[in-house]
Amino acid sequence: MIATSELRELLYNGGASLVGFGDISALQYGGYTSCVALAVKIPADVVYGIGLGPTRDYFEQYRALNSKLDSLAELTAQYLTRQGFRAMAQTTTAVAESSGFRTPMPHKTCATRAGLGWIGKSALLVTREYGPAVRLSSVLTDARFDCMAEPVNTSGCGSCTACTRACPGRAIQGALWDVGTPREKLVDAKACRRTARALAMERIGEKITLCGKCVEVCPYTRAYLEKENLL
Ligand code: SF4
Ligand code: SF4
Question: How do beta strands 125-126 and 134-141 pair?
Fold first, then answer.
C-alpha cells in the first residue's frame, strides 16, 4: 500500500500543479488497476497572450511542459517500481513508440478517474483550478494507494457555451459529456485541425496544429487568469 501523501509531495515539489490517484480496474488494461494522473498548468501570461490567436510562446510552452511532465511521470514510475509494483510512465516517447502517438490509456481518462476534472464541451479536460489550461500525463500501475479519488463521471459545464461560441472552426458541437461519450459527439476533429493549422500558419508561420481559443475563453481559465491578476 502506497502512502499518497508522500508521493504527492514529491510530485508537487517537482513542479506538478495537480496530482490524482484513480481506480482503473474496470477498464481492464494490461493488468493495471490504478493510475496516477498529473497536470501542469500552462503559465497564466502565456494563456492570456493567445487571446488573438496562437503565439510562439504558447507553442514553446507545449514542448517545455511535455518535457516537465515526462520527468514527473518517470519519477512516479521509479518511485512505484522501487516499492515492488509495476508502473508504466505514459511519457511522450513511450506513447509514440507503443502506438503511433495514441496513448493506450488516454491521459484524460486517467485524469477523470483520478478526480482532476471533467471533459468539457471542447473535449478538453477542465479542472476547477486552471480550467483546460493544463497539460497532462499519467502513470499506470498495479500499486494500491491509501487514498483514491472519487472519479468524475459527468460534466461540470452546465449551460456554459463560451467555447462553443468562440471556436473559430465551429468545431465544438455543444454536447454535455458523461462517461462513455465518444469524442466525435463533442468536437468535429477534422474541422478543429483544419482551423488550428490555418491559424498556426497565419500567426506564427509554422506547419503545426495550434489554436487554444477554447482554452482561453473557458470561465474556469478566466478565473485562473483573474487570480493571477491578468484580468
Ligand atoms: S482548438 Fe480552436 S478550432 Fe479546435 S475546438 Fe478549440 S477553439 Fe475550436
Ligand atoms: S468554456 Fe464552458 S462549455 Fe466550454 S469547456 Fe469551459 S465550462 Fe465547458
Answer: unpaired
Cell numbers 502565456 correspond to 46
Q: In this structure, which residue's CA is closest to atom 2 in ligand 1?
A: 211
Cα 167 to averaged position of ligand 1 atoms, centre (Å): 5
Residue 118: phi and psi, rounded to 5, are -120, 170
Whether ligand 1 lies within 6 angstroms of the CB of 124 is answered as no
Q: Cβ(219) to ligand 1 under 6 A?
A: no
The ligand placed nearest to the CA atom of residue 132 is: 2
pLDDT digits (tens, 9 = 90+) for 92-148: 877 766 555 556 799 999 999 999 999 999 999 999 999 999 999 999 999 999 989
Report the separation in Å between the CA atom of 219 and the middle of ligand 2, taken as the mean of its atom positions.
7
E strand spans, the chain: 18-23, 34-41, 87-89, 118-119, 125-126, 134-141
pLDDT digits (tens, 9 = 90+) for 15-63: 999 999 999 999 988 999 999 999 999 999 999 999 999 999 999 998 8
